[in-house]
Amino acid sequence: MLFSRLPLWAITFGAGIANGIDLNPDDIDSIKSSASTVAAGMMSHYTGYRPGDNPGNLPPPYYWWEAGAMFGHLVEYWYYTGDDQYNAHTQQAITWQAGTDAEFMPPNQTLSEGNDDQIFWAFAAMSAAELNFPAPEGNGPSYLTMAIAVYNLQSARWDNKTCGGGLRWQILSQNTGWDYKNAVANGGLFQLSARLARYTGEDKYANWAEKHWDWFSTSVLYEPSTHQINDGTDVTANCTKSNPTQWSYNYGLWFTGLAYMYSATQDQKWLTELKAILNTYFTNFYPQASGGKILVEIVCEPSGNCDTDNLCFKSFSMRWLALTAQLVPELADQINPYLRASGKAAAGQCSGGSDGNTCGMKWTQTAWDGSTGVGQQMSALAAIDANMLRLKKLNLPYTAKTGGTSKGDPSAGTETGPGNNIIDLIYTRKITTADQAGAGILTAMALAFTLGGGYWILGTSA
Ligand SMILES: *[C@@H]1O[C@H](CO)[C@@H](O)[C@H](O)[C@H]1NC(C)=O
Ligand SMILES: *[C@@H]1O[C@H](CO)[C@@H](O)[C@H](O)[C@H]1NC(C)=O
Ligand SMILES: *[C@@H]1O[C@H](CO)[C@@H](O)[C@H](O)[C@H]1NC(C)=O
């Protein structure tokens, strides 16, 4: 090719042939091929399937929970596109990390594992159950049993000795964040119980979701007049003040749980709250300056300060927005423009790296932002996949009554035994420095906060 025919940007930046992925969000083949390219970029980071490697772990700097989240997206990728090339890796990772007790508390992780870390693996298993994702060969625990085990463990961690209830962020009292009750740990269990309520039809899960919602919605984590979801609150100050940091996935956790509860019960109470939180979410995370329909992780993205965890947060509310439109069809017309614009913009960020298709984070800009990683790929993948909903006849997430094949053991997670009973771990094992430096969503971050002064500093110490 003649040099003079190259577009100007290619000369200036020496970039590759690609100018982002040109997603047509109204075309099934375009969505499939775009999603396939982005999924391949995501999986280029993963080596756990190789002999001698560790199934279900991503290499540093990615924490264990993010791998769980990634495999959840791969279950959903298969559902949306039908591409099964990563199914075997996904089955292997989920079953290996769930362990024979189905609890997602593998000994390599337990000493630094938080409730939120565990829940993202449980979501992967729950999605696998809801979507009839193929089960692996053998007699291991079912996907539904894994989700139930995590529900049983986490609901037993309900702490009404402080702040009238709620879950603490951490599982172990030695870990930073034990004194923090937050939107992610509580929204995680709320969503899981709502999903189990819908899947199984059993009252106990719906009752739990109701109890959890009642606590949350009257705590400082939620502002009922503005429907703002705050990040967390300090137990040692009796949960009287909140850390108001705004993360998109906190909203997604709660609005999706509400969508499941509405789908399960048809009770208007859930729909009213769902609509209200969605509106605040759209207002907070889709700035008018970029058209009002493109998702921005507002706390860290404009300033370029997102840490490894933060970089994947957008993936969750993208996936969950689509799920909400599915579960509550009357909201689809409102939600679709956000999926369309964000999907297209996310694909357009995938123009970096040596392959010319590596995704950045800043969907509101047309030139690649120079960043790369699993979180960026995951987020773009979820945003692209979500557009399939409008075009392809997809089954609603199954329930036990509508064709869900995964059968669960209701007592999973309640047996006591080595590695199974967290109380044993708390009292019988000494934490080593290596343990403390281990995985954990934000667990290894030093959390320094002065509630009275009204400012919070979050810094990485891992
Ligand atoms: C725990 O770590 C060991 C050593 O790296 C590894 O062989 C094993 O697969 C890990 N277990 C899990 C469940 O990841
Ligand atoms: C606190 O929680 C425990 C265990 O779930 C329950 O038995 C007890 O009734 C609760 N107490 C109050 C005051 O809610
Ligand atoms: C928290 O509440 C308890 C019981 O009401 C009270 O004894 C304690 O002083 C309170 N602590 C703070 C920091 O407000």
Notes on the structure:
- By secondary structure, the protein is mainly α.
- It has one domain: Glycosyltransferase (Alpha/alpha barrel).
- The protein is built from 15 helices and nine strands.
- The strands form four sheets. A three-stranded antiparallel sheet has the order 1-4-5. Strands 2-3 form a two-stranded antiparallel ribbon. It has a two-stranded antiparallel ribbon with strand order 6-7.
- Helix 3 (64-81) runs parallel beside helix 5 (115-130) and helix 11 runs parallel beside helix 13 (374-385).
- The N and C termini lie far apart (49 Å).
- The model is unreliable at 1-18 and 417-462 (pLDDT under 50).
- Bound molecules: 2-acetamido-2-deoxy-beta-D-glucopyranose (3 copies).
- One 2-acetamido-2-deoxy-beta-D-glucopyranose is lined by residues 237-238.
- Its EC number is 3.2.1.101.
- Its main location: membrane.
- Keywords: Glycoprotein, Glycosidase, Hydrolase, Membrane, Signal, Transmembrane, Transmembrane helix.
Number of helices in the DSSP assignment: 15
Overall number of structural domains: 1
The low-confidence parts are 1-18, 417-462
CATH domain fold name: Glycosyltransferase
Anisotropy-based shape: globular
Rg (C-alpha, Å): 21 Å
GO molecular function: mannan endo-1,6-alpha-mannosidase activity
Protein name: Mannan endo-1,6-alpha-mannosidase
Enzyme class: hydrolase
Family: Belongs to the glycosyl hydrolase 76 family.
